[in-house]
Amino acid sequence: MTEHMQSPSTVCGQAQFRTDVRLVHAPDRKRTGLQRGIRVVWFPDNIGNLVWDHGPELLGPELRAVLDDADMLCSDEGVRPGSDRNAVFLTALCPGPCDLARFQETDFVIVGCGGLGSQIAIQLAALGARHFMLIDGDRIEASNLNRLTFATAADIGLPKTETLKGYLELRFGVSVQALSEFATGAAAVQAILQRTRLPFLVLAGDDAHLARRFLSAHHAAVSAPPPYLHVGYVGAHCMAGPLVAVAEDACPFCGSAAEIIADAGFVAPSALANNALIAGFAVSQIAIERLTRRSVLSGHRWLFDLQTGRTQLRPILKHPECKVCQP
Amino acid sequence: MPEDRTTPPGAAVSAAKLHVVTIKLTSEQRSELQRLTGETLHELRIGVEDLIDIGDLVAN
User: What is the pairing mode between strands A39-44 and A31-36?
Assistant: First the structure.
């Protein structure tokens, strides 16, 4: 059941459960249950649905005690509506203290709004991000529609940034700035610095030459440039990282991609499925960095081989003479 | 007429893994459940199970 089809009482009932509780049905269809982790509380027939929809109070304090023992109920402060549901997802990513406001107040600057960049923007918005800046000089082509979930045939010929901006604003009510030009260097960096307060950049363009020029200008612009994450494809691999937050972090060009590219003739296509896979991992890592100021992608590149299923978290060492990140 | 019955225990689940809790329903709870389900229940048997098969844990 999608949320917009639910009655207020239904939403109220589900909101009393922790976000990772789900409604399940026994294979024999004779029982319904509420599951969290390895524990399931089973009810006869469809009574689990009723408890799910109306909340534990439907059957009094005894049931509430059973569900509480199974750690399935929200604490009082978790029952608030709206963005707090996102907060539950976000805090689940971080076992320790975290700074939710820092995630919500970040200006997410998406450099490259094609299949991958747009997917990341959409997932961030769905997780409660509120401010975006979209940068891309491309227009929507018919051949893009198989991987642009925000566009239709009616959008062919329009700038990707404007169309994605409209989608994000309408769907998530977020604030979006659009810059319909390619991030070619210093001008784009200045535009980002002038128009944002707490920027975090996602480099999702498919042109390595442009990315190199842009990052050179980015690192040269200020002594402590805004943090960024590089995502994309390398040979047969989906890729996320490195995440660069401080001057000591290795940039994407500190290491060589040659050894990865050389290992297979297969080149991973920028298909919707692959983009969503990279985006899902990248968004989790972005959220963790925003919440905790730490990231496993600092100095590392995550690689997923689509053919073999092998994953690696490959270290990238800071190159003392890197022409991109060293002043 | 709504069916009057007692809730059956959880079927197809090993008793060794299932802890059953019986909740006696108050008249108000009975009425509310009857309104929602059309059935009259006097008590509710709830099973609390810890899954051990990873196949049961795979979520969609």
Answer: antiparallel
